[in-house]
Write a structure and sequence with these properties.
629 residues; alpha+beta
Length: 629
């Protein structure tokens, strides 16, 4: 630096300090010097800020698609959320980016598919700290596919919605459950200038006699009051209605009274009370906006990070039900990722309008930036599209295909490595290594006519298989997604079910023929990867009564033993009789054996289905039918 330039800089600094001293000594009231941060950049004018609405994103942990009354729940009453919906657009076909929370949350913040982020698994199922995911070479011998690891935190250099809006002049805050990592991945390093994390309190929902989410609500209101004079971006991620499953004790009795199992599959009083408490918190946020006279200048987005939890129980009741949708949190089926989405945009979005457009959480970042008149940096890649046309009711809006990539095993839900694509009203699920031969298994559903995904059209819709398989292949290539590979150490179990009896397939049913009066053994090691209670359903037909039993083997106890058996009786003669046998599995299931007791008659089997206790089908064996390829 030359001497002349240095002299000019020093002179300028002296003049600046002299001016400050004069202001401080002559002003009748103290002057607060504003810190120049990305929130209040010096080149942002107050006039420009005045045209930018406040934005509040309320994301609820594990809130299912039909858990609020506006979406059809009869056991949960949510008047505050209903009132919010009356002011906004109600999306009926909105999806989270994943059926698990962390991948979905990361996708929302970045506008990128979890597959592109390489963050596709929840931390609970992916222990340790993994910054750079990889695909191992081998796996244990009973596992068909080698599956990749997943990042355990959002990379610090990822550009988030908070950083983009902060640059656009917004005050930014995060409050709630943050499971996207530490150090450079913490909220303060991802664009949030103010943050209150509830994650350390996950095991302690009650703090000083007050629920964590109640404290978060009050903190949010306080922060809005402080920042009411400038545009703000508030992320309020509620820990409830996820684990731990607790509700204010006074709210449970009325919920218990209103729960009617005969009228609605949702009948867990504790869950209904948790949702009622959530509803009250939403009401407090809206009331604070009204008091601060910010109602007409504030956009509110209300949604969930994934589908409703249909694996945990409270007092013997499933937490919730996503019916008519199939499956729940962690599942590749609709119940795993279909979520509520309500967007209130005063003066732009038509109030109380239902929107059937298919949208994804990956679309929220570009939508928020559009709302705020912000700018996504040139060359920065995102996967979402703005939902402004859908919010304004513009004709012809189509965000294109949506994808869910889950290249892992999930023993809690029985989900095996898979990817799905929804294009228009058709959906294809590709289960990597879904056959015992380590080849992929395909399921195809027409969601317009079969939203519950009960009828697999893979055998009849080859045209859709070709079209949507191409979409998947392009997606995997374009995102550089990690894809499961065949396990070279895999010890292939016997294909389907094996038996020592003579067996013939006749008209789609399997006839097991006796040899003398000996029992008939029927067993398989081609079983769903679950570690929880399982229900077998199978139709039987025989000409005589007989006793039967089901035994199972696990990873820790690989033999069939009498200490793991459930007995049943075949009582009808000459007619089909469907049996339901519940297996109290607690360890990873590896095999199933059915023994039909001594008798003098043959036995016919139509099919066998394995379901979780919520009715979610995790495995089906059709005898005499060719499985989908």
């Amino acid at each position: 630096m030359n001497q002349r330039r240095l002299t000019r800089i020093v002179s300028g600094l002296c003049l600046l300090f002299a001016s400050l001293i004069w202001i401080l000594t002559t002003s009748p009231t103290p002057v607060v010097l504003a810190q120049i941060t990305p929130e209040t950049s010096a080149d942002t004018t107050s006039a420009a800020l005045a045209d930018r609405p406040n934005i509040i994103v309320i994301m609820v942990d594990d809130l299912g698609w039909r858990d609020t009354s506006i979406y059809g729940s009869k056991s949960s009453r949510t008047p505050q959320i209903d009132a919010l919906a009356a002011r906004g657009v109600i999306f009926t076909q909105a999806y989270s980016s994943s059926s698990l929370d962390e991948p979905s949350q990361a996708s929302f913040l970045t506008g990128k598919w979890p597959a592109r982020l390489k963050l596709t698994q929840s931390r609970e199922l992916n222990p340790g700290e993994i910054l750079e995911p990889s695909l191992p070479q081998t796996a244990l011998s009973h596992i068909s596919m080698v599956t990749p690891t997943s990042r355990t935190q959002l990379p610090g250099d990822e550009l988030t919605a908070a950083e983009i809006l902060q640059t656009a002049g917004y005050a930014t805050a995060f409050m709630g459950e943050w499971n996207l990592g530490e150090n450079t991945s913490q909220p303060e390093n991802q664009g949030f200038s103010h943050f209150v994390r509830s994650s350390p309190l996950t095991s302690q929902p009650q703090l000083a006699g007050q629920h964590t989410d109640d404290l978060l609500t009050q903190q949010a209101i306080n922060w809005m009051e402080t920042n009411s004079k400038e545009p703000f971006f508030l992320n309020l991620w509620y820990q409830s209605v996820g684990a731990p499953f607790q509700a204010p004790s006074g709210d449970i009795p009325p919920a218990r009274t209103s729960a009617d199992p005969s009228q609605d599959p949702q009948h867990a009083p504790v869950m209904a009370a948790m949702i009622a408490a959530l509803d009250q918190r939403v009401g407090l946020i809206v009331a604070a906006l009204e008091r601060l006279q910010l109602t007409q200048s504030t956009i509110i987005v209300f949604t969930s990070d994934n589908g409703g939890n249909m694996t945990n129980t409270i007092e013997g009741d499933l937490l919730t039900s996503n019916r008519p949708l199939r499956g729940g949190k962690g599942s590749m089926y609709e119940g795993g990722s279909r979520v509520p989405l309500i967007i209130v945009w005063p003066g732009v979005a038509t109030p109380a309008r239902t929107c059937d457009d298919v949208v994804s959480a990956v679309d929220l970042l570009p939508t928020l930036v559009d709302m705020a008149h912000g700018t996504i940096p040139a060359g920065h890649q995102i996967d979402g599209v703005t939902l402004k046309p859908a919010l304004t009711g513009a004709a012809g809006f189509d965000r294109g295909a949506i994808f869910h990539h889950y290249p892992h095993y999930n023993p809690t839900t029985g989900t095996t490595p898979a990817i799905s694509v929804r294009s228009e009203n058709m959906k294809l699920i590709r289960f990597f290594g879904g056959h015992v031969t380590q080849t992929d298994r395909i399921e195809v559903y027409d969601l317009q006519n079969d939203p519950g995904e009960r009828i697999n059209l893979a055998r009849s819709r080859r045209d859709e298989i070709v079209r949507m398989t191409n979409l998947i292949q392009n997606f995997l290539k374009e995102t550089s997604a990690l894809v499961p590979q065949k396990n070279p150490n895999f010890e292939r179990p016997q294909q389907g079910w094996a038996t020592g009896a003579d067996a013939e397939v006749e008209d789609g049913e399997l006839v097991l023929k006796r040899s003398g009066d000996r029992p008939i053994l029927f067993e398989t090691y081609d079983v769903p990867h679950v570690n929880r209670q399982l229900r077998l359903r199978l139709p039987l037909k025989t000409s005589s009564r007989m006793e039967g039993r089901v035994m199972w083997s696990t990873a820790s106890e690989p033999s069939f033993t009498q200490n793991r058996q459930v007995k049943f009786a075949v009582t009808q003669k000459g007619e089909w009789e469907t049996h339901e046998i519940t297996l109290p599995v607690q360890d990873l299931l590896t095999g199933i054996r059915i023994e039909f007791g001594k008798g003098d008659s043959d036995l016919s089997l139509g099919w066998i289905r394995a379901e979780l206790i919520d009715g979610n089908l995790v495995k089906e064996w059709q005898f005499g039918e060719v499985e989908s390829e």
